[in-house]
Design a protein that fits this description.
alpha/beta; Glutaredoxin; globular
Length: 197
């Protein structure tokens, strides 16, 4: 009798594992489909330069819902950060300054937190006087599945058509941030390290 049960249990376990893989792949495909925004552009969806930025819906620290697809027609800067990250802390004053300079009519800044609790994000926001939306991401779904940082911080510059035009990993200086934003707004190839004159 035990000779019959062992193969049956093995078949059952393999069947469960196969079903798990199937449903995981189906969920990933569904999330990628939902990430695609209706567009006239025939581009792959992704976070690399030249790809259509994945759509997402998130809840901000203030409890508001933000949806990337609603921002079509504006330049968007998505910044993945963590409150404990030294380079993030060095960069944030430059992002706050640029967000104040551009205003949300021309450029929309969105911070996505790397899996911290709301209290940590709120303390970070208050310390740096961040006025732009900070999206909570306690379960890590946004940074594990869509906007996976190359390092911390990582910023994606998205043009008015929703296309990723530049990705910067690490802390940006004021000049680099200004150069890339100016170029993306003007529709030029971004040159973060150009010098004037």
């Amino acid at each position: 009798m035990s000779r019959i049960w062992k193969p049956l249990v093995l078949i059952l376990v393999i069947g469960i594992m196969a079903a798990d893989v199937f449903f995981d792949q189906r969920a990933i495909a569904q999330s990628q489909t939902e990430a695609a925004v209706q567009t006239d552009l025939d581009l792959p969806v992704g976070t690399k330069v030249g790809e259509l930025a994945p759509n997402f819906t998130g809840t901000t620290l203030d409890g508001e819902t933000i949806r990337l697809s609603d921002l079509r027609g504006k330049t968007v800067l998505i910044n993945v950060f963590a409150s404990w990250c030294g380079p993030c802390r060095l960069e944030m004053p430059h992002l706050v300054e640029a967000a104040d300079q551009f205003g949300d009519q021309e450029v929309v800044f969105i911070g996505i937190n790397l899996q911290e609790n709301p209290e940590a994000v709120e303390a970070f926001r208050d310390e740096f006087n961040v006025q732009f939306p900070l999206v909570l991401n306690e379960d890590g779904s946004l940074t594990n599945n869509l906007y996976t940082p190359i390092g911390l911080p990582t910023s994606w510059f998205i043009d008015q058509d929703g296309v990723v035009r530049y990705v910067f990993a690490g802390a940006m200086t004021r000049e680099v941030l200004q150069n890339v934003l100016d170029d993306v707004i003007a529709g030029r190839e971004p040159d973060p390290f150009r010098t004037s004159g």
